[in-house]
Amino acid sequence: xxxxxxxxxxxxxxxxxxxxxxxxxxxxxxxxxxxxxxxxxxxxxxxxxxxxxxxxxxxxxxxxxxxxxxxxxxxxxxxxxxxxxxxxxxxxxxxxxxxxxxxxxxxxxxxxxxxxxxxxxxxxxxxxxxxxxxxxxxxxxxxxxxxxxxxxxxxxxxxxxxxxxxxxxxxxxxxxxxxxxxxxxxxxxxxxxxxxxxxxxxxxxxxxxxxxxxxxxxxxxxxxxxxxxxxxxxxxxxxxxxxxxxxxxxxxxxxxxxxxxxxxxxxxxxxxxxxxxxxxxxxxxxxxxxxxxxxxxxxxxxxxxxxxxxxxxxxxxxxxxxxxxxxxxxxxxxxxxxxxxxxxxxxxxxxxxxxxxxxxxxxx
Length: 364
Hints:
This protein is mostly helical. It has helices at residues 36-50, 58-69, 75-93, 103-115, 126-147, 153-157, 173-181, 187-199, 203-207, 252-263, 279-293, 300-313, 318-325, 330-333, 344-363, and strands spanning 2-6, 11-19, 25-33, 214-215, 220-223, 226-230, 233-237, 246-249. A hairpin with a 4-residue loop joins strand 4 and strand 5. Helix 7 packs across helix 11. It is elongated, with a radius of gyration of 28 Å.
């Protein structure tokens, strides 16, 4: 590396040469330092970071963390993590040396957040506090696993906040049908809620659907993408999990409705979005429908819960339901365990029937 003064701007710059992970020599530079001291300090930090030395600052390590982790995450997932790191973690730890941060420093950070209030005057929720701590801990875990940090001070300090269990709300079929009647004046809204309720797909999956995803002859829909609105742009991403990629059967009436809906869309191509609006539109329509009909207000995601509860009521197994709705693990489906009917009586009845059948065979 080399530090030079730019006489034209009266500022300092650093020319930084390094070898990347493939062994190729590269060069970059940074301009605009007000003093030589600042330029030398930045140069020193780059050397430490290049060598993956634990003497680097927490801020420098976060740059490595971002380079390692970001390519592996969905864009909207990273956007949430980046906001937490930038606004809640870096302001406190950025200039601290990574190896010198101790559990007591994490506790002090936690206490600062516990005392903060939002613009509405309320403190952060326990769930949000837990999310903040988990992100800090994830950064330290990365340093332990890949960069030789001795221990994770966030783990030693212990978590703050807690996971708040959200009540699962459901619509019965009668409630949904009452609600859907209020949507009939807007076909796009009506058909969107029809798909949500009768398939149990996620709203991001709904908003990414195209005519090409439907096989109306075989009455199936292919789910292989999700819609997000990020930084003011429409973004199509892979589904939430690998098992979210699925092909599901749809009822005859829904296939007929979708065919009718597509025919009514002037000039739509096979790859255009069937429902070209955002999640905020669905929220607005949910509010409108509930207000007009008196049906209890649920979250959009609760329509998915409603579909699952309907399948349970109809007697389908957890395995079959998990496959239909794209749960990554059947354990997720078992979160609805309290809805599954008790099968003890049915088991005993069938065992008795089998025994009686065998006894009759013996007699004959």
